[in-house]
Amino acid sequence: MNLPVDTKARILHVARDLFHGRSYADVGIKEICDLARVQKGSFYHFFPSKQDLAMAVIDDMADDWAHGFVAEAFDRDLPPLERLDYLIDAAYYWQKAAKDLEGRMPGCLFGNLALEVSTRDEVLRAKLNAVFAKASSRFRETLDEAIEQGLIAPLDAEATAQAMLAYLEGMILLAKTRNDPEVIRELGPAIKTVRIELAANN
């Protein structure tokens, strides 16, 4: 493991890998400190608690996504519906690369954490909900553009965006359960068929 030089960055790097590869509950502060090669005092200087560390890990991963493949997939220079194709391809190759390297699919860090902590930690649940809300807004903006350009018929963009996000997360979870990234490639194109009709009074 190539560790960053900066102490805080090392802690984040190790914790992110461990939370993603195993689970939040299964990982202890001592293990994180040992792998990051830092003293517990240094850990608590940056992160008063494990919960604070998890919040920082979520922010760190969300920032990487926002400036990485999510930004590329939802690039406004791409036609709206092509953005969905790009997103599915990116999710597939990301999970496939991880499986090729580790022998197993890690799934989505946000989805993994949501399944594990949402009923037990209100602070982390709210943090994850904010990440999902931001992701949903990317879908909504894409749908709004597609409707404006006449590429798809009018629909409830807000509800459809949330349904598309749910489809994406569910598909990744299914692929993780089967340890088979090909599930994403096979089921991914159907995300463009997800739609919620406008309410009759709209």
What does this entry look like structurally?
The structure is a single chain. By secondary structure, the chain is an all-alpha fold. The chain folds into two domains: about 1-50, Homeodomain-like (Arc Repressor Mutant, subunit A); about 70-195, Tetracycline Repressor, domain 2 (Orthogonal Bundle). About 70% of the residues lie in helices and about 0% in strands. The chain has helices at about 5-20, 30-35, 40-45, 50-65, 70-75, 80-100, 110-115, 120-150, 155-180, 180-185. α6 (about 80-100) packs across α8 (about 120-150). It starts with 6 loop residues before the first helix and ends in a 15-residue tail after the last helix. The mean pLDDT is about 95.
CATH topology group of the largest domain = Tetracycline Repressor, domain 2
Total E-strand runs: 0
Supply the number of helical segments.
10
Which whole number gives the mean pLDDT?
Answer: 93
Outline the fold blueprint.
Layout: H1 7-21, H2 29-36, H3 40-46, H4 50-67, H5 69-73, H6 80-102, H7 109-117, H8 122-148, H9 157-178, H10 182-187
Care to give the gist of this entry?
This protein is mainly alpha-helical and 202 residues long. The chain contains 10 helices and no strands.
Task: Throw out a few tags for this protein.
single chain; Arc Repressor Mutant, subunit A; Tetracycline Repressor, domain 2; 2 domains; elongated
